[in-house]
Amino acid sequence: MNLVENLYDIIEKPILTEKCYSQFQSKRYAFRVVKNATKNQIKIAVETIFGVEVAKVNTLRVTGKIKRRGKYEGRTTSYKKAYVTLTDNSKAIEFFESLS
Question: pLDDT tens digits for 25-75?
Fold first, then answer.
């Protein structure tokens, strides 16, 4: 089992789509994370980096889309996505609040 050594290496970047923007009011945020990160590692990383309380973490693996360039065909990279739900008494993440 591969463990991620540094908490800042677990979260690669936030996912900013229309669906994610609509979930900001319910304190639910989406992140692109490392493929071998567990739900517990993601929870600890979000709590320490942003200083919030996490209630629930849902993860899913996104497979790469098939792309074509003329006669050549390939796939985009696949990745792991994490939806993080904060507790009701937790403060919102400031980075996302400035976007909405």
Answer: 999 999 999 999 999 999 999 999 999 999 999 999 999 999 999 999 999
pLDDT digit string, tens, across residues 35-44: 999 999 999 9
CATH of the domain at 42: 3.30.70.330
Give exposure, 15-54, as e/b (b: 16+ Cβ within 10 Å): beeeebeeeeeebbbbbebbeebeeebbbebbbeebebeb
Query: Is residue 69 in a domain?
Result: yes
Q: Total domain count for the chain? A: 1
Torsion sign across C-alpha atoms 91, 9, 21, 85: negative
Q: Is residue 68 part of a domain?
A: yes
